[in-house]
Amino acid sequence: MTLTADRLRGIFPAIPTPVHGDDRIDTRAAQALVRRLVDHGVAGIVPLGGTGEYGALAREERVRMAAACVEAAAGRVPVIPGVLDPGLHDALQAGRAFADAGASALMVVTPYYTNPTQAGLREYFLRYAEASPLPILIYEIPYRTRIAMAPELLHELSRHPRIIGMKACNTDCYHFLKVVAGVDESFAVLSGEDTLFPLHVAAGARGGVVVTASLLPRTWQRLFELASSGQTAAALALHRELIPLLDLSFAETNPGPMKAVLDMIGITAPQLLTPLVPPAAELQARLRATLAPQLAAEAALGPG
Q1: Ordered structural domains, the chain, with CATH
Q2: Cα–Cα distance measured from residue 114 to residue 48, given in angstroms and rounded to the nearest whole number
Q3: Model pTM above 0.90
Q4: 171, 141 contact by CB (below 8 A)
Q5: Cβ–Cβ under 8 Å, residues 168 and 154
Q6: Is 174 among the catalytic positions?
Q7: 54, 124, 128, 139: which is the annotated catalytic residue?
Q8: Annotated catalytic, 124?
Q9: Annotated catalytic residue, options 54, 124, 128, 167
């Protein structure tokens, strides 16, 4: 399905990439995770971002992961793979391969390492949008790329018919407020920060690309329902209960901690890709102890 901005609403888990010891996709585990999330009512699936270890996967394995997710989603929700290449032509090649695999849209990161100006960022996303076979979401994550986009540039790009939204991972809340104040109505800003999610929704985000929603999809959907309906105090209270889990989930580089506990939701996929290594045993033990009551509370929420 080709995505439009009005469908970018709700919780879109950023999912990890299950792999075997030979660094190839564990298709069975990947599809089991996607089916579980879809059955729990998520709005879409986002594979192959940073959580999906994009840069550590072979190119053909990225395409296999995208295709596996599309097959498992079975048209019930959109699949939006990340495109994390730093150069235009490699990024376009990846996007075309994901389109052929059945993706609905692409989440395209800012072109890092070259340290472009705002004019260069403008040129990059306009050229990508014009050449892409699918609509795109801008992926801004300055603490990983060292590239931030000016709110005024995002306002302009939001009016392009093939740029339908963004994953906002800029932790500067004033920057976020300025972005949502001027983007087009047809453009969906999605929070990319588990830690700031209720604040982002209260400020105008239409949902979020959420890492820990892979573990707790119903909890995050409940949080979104509260925040998006103006029940900000209740949303903040629920989010406050998640803070210990969030602290542990990001205590070492994501997705290491989350992969270590996926077996608690029935998905055995602890293997990480070089250069990531398994998280410390103490962290794993603390994460398990913290996640267990959260999973019990999740089950009490009922069907998604």
Answers
A1: 5-300 (3.20.20.70)
A2: 22
A3: yes
A4: no
A5: no
A6: no
A7: 139
A8: no
A9: 167
